[in-house]
Amino acid sequence: MLKNAKHDELTPPSSSRAPQPTNRTRWRAVVIGTLLLPANAYWIASGEATSTTVSLFFNIIFILFILLLLNLLFKQIAPNAALNQGELLIVYVMLSISSGIAGLDMMRVLMSVLVGPFWYARPENEWAELFWRFIPHWLAVQDKEVLKGFAEGESSFYVPQVVQAWLFPTLIWSGFIFLLVFGMLCINVLVRRPWTEAEKLSYPIIQLPLQMTDGRSSLLSNRMMWIGFGLGAGLDILNGLHFLYPIIPGLGGRLYDLRPFFTNKPWNAIGWTPVAIFPYAVGLGFLIPLDLSFACWFFYLFWKAERILANVLGLHSIPEFPYIEQQTTGAYLGLFLIALWMTRHHLKRVVSAAIGGGRGESVDEPMSYRAALIGLIFVFGTLLFFCQQVGMALWSSFLFFLIYYAISTAITRMRAELGSPVHDLHFSGPDTTLVKVLGTRVLSSNELTMYGLFHFFNRAYRGHVMPHQLEGFKLMERSRSSHRRLLWGMIVAIALTGPVAFWAYLSDGYRYSGAIGYAWRPFNKLQSWLYHPLSPDYGAMGGLIFGMVTTLFLMVMRMRFIWWVFHPAGFAVSSSWSMNVFWGSIFVSWLLKLILLKLGGVKTHQKAIPLFLGLILGEFVIGGFWSLRGAIWNIPTYRFLF
């Protein structure tokens, strides 16, 4: 990761400034983005939270595509009303941030953990006696009569008693989410310059929205793009019709498990090993560097080999061995340390500028370094105060959020440089890490219960908001648009998405029943922790350290030897659940890219990029159509995303 390790040290503070904004953006972009927030949140809440399980959200690409079509119309009939590139991108970034908050790995799980511990409480599991008293009444609705409508549906949220019951928890958790995500924004402001200007990171994920909105780009008139669009769209049309009318044959669109081919020991230790090829995933894989795509599928097979080796050595009987989840956490923390080390000189200047109070260093930033640093300190302090109010010790809540923001920063840096299509890190966040390392005996019942509630932003990190913020700043730089206007658009999106998403989930849930199954895992674990206190898990600690050391080793080798192909970021992301779904597609994209570069060189590779952007766009547009159709009429529909 981070090949330009020495660039930040050698580049003077002002030598790599981005071009000054020349693309005038107006407040109407923020207004349009704001008006689209409720519709987008309801689309996600009504069943398409899976739209946020890959780095590029298909629902936002679909909306952007529709806006582009409308924009073409306005250019003909009312040119002054048409949006320019910067304005379109502000809307895109606002909706991306909002989707990350409203999506599967935040709001959908939050609704589950707020309702589940009370709705699923039974005399036999003793949840009421075990931990209800540790959940303050102002954090969650505890009246089962109010919760019944959400859990079972066929009711209405718009009943005074129901609205009143949910009002205060909605405000509290919306405020919490605002603080959590605003803290990410402050960090991004502090690291934006070296990560977007000095080091010239590639930001592969932004390529499609950037080229779609660039009026000077030939993407939408490129023949190769439309060939790719036709392939991706045609496949989704066929599979969508197959879903509706099974007599029509489908093509792909599903996972094929390889386990039936490995039934004998030790090979059967590989576990679930699906393989599939999805056009959009091949397209996303083609955009990322060749060494990362190689590392993704190579280390995916490496993790399978670890399981087989453990079986051969008779170590599979040790619970959780070989501690893959802990190795992954260690790998991400290693990536954070690498990013911190490479940005250290800039961060020293940031602190000096913030203390000195001058704006020389931060004159072109979305906000001054002093404001960003004060904002980050305020966020951290307020989050710690919140944790104290719910019974958590200061030291444990400090460690919790320190680990959380470290992982968040690592994901953001990795996305900026390499554009990893997935980074879910399932069940490997600070809640699991602290319990494994410290045990439960040093943590109070209040703290363990709050870990259950905090599961909503630590279950997985697929739709993480922080990378979208930094990518938004890069989009503004590339389009020569105003960072300040985008900053306000981001703040509006962060502030409004909490209450808007609550409304969307509650409105849809009381009508059709809400998804509350995500509560089982955290509160079953909580029940186990309270019944059977745990000591520190030294094996898990070893896995954590091994993952971190391996990542640092891979980085050192990468910096010393140009031929080194084992990318540390690939080691981190390859163990994720999502890599089960995408490793086959990433392998295909790696092979195609390798062949093109070997046979045709860089020029041929550049000419092929529109084809792969078309694959993404075609599948996202038609997949978005099927998804929207299902959301509007509340009917099952073809789902191309897992």
Q: Tell me, briefly, the overall form.
A: globular
CA radius of gyration is 24 Å
Order the strands across the largest sheet as they lie in space: 1-2
Count of runs of 4 or more consecutive helical residues: 24
Oligomer: single chain
Measure the end-to-end span: 27 Å
* Rounded average pLDDT: 92
What share of the residues does DSSP label as strand, in percent? under 5%
**Overall structural domain count:** 1
Query: How would you classify the helix and strand content by structural class?
Result: mainly alpha
A few lines on this structure:
The chain is mainly α and 642 residues long. It has helices at 7-10, 28-45, 58-77, 85-102, 104-119, 127-131, 144-152, 160-198, 207-213, 223-244, 279-287, 290-312, 324-342, 344-356, 369-389, 394-418, 430-438, 445-453, 466-478, 483-512, 520-531, 538-560, 568-573, 577-633, and strands spanning 256-257, 274-275.
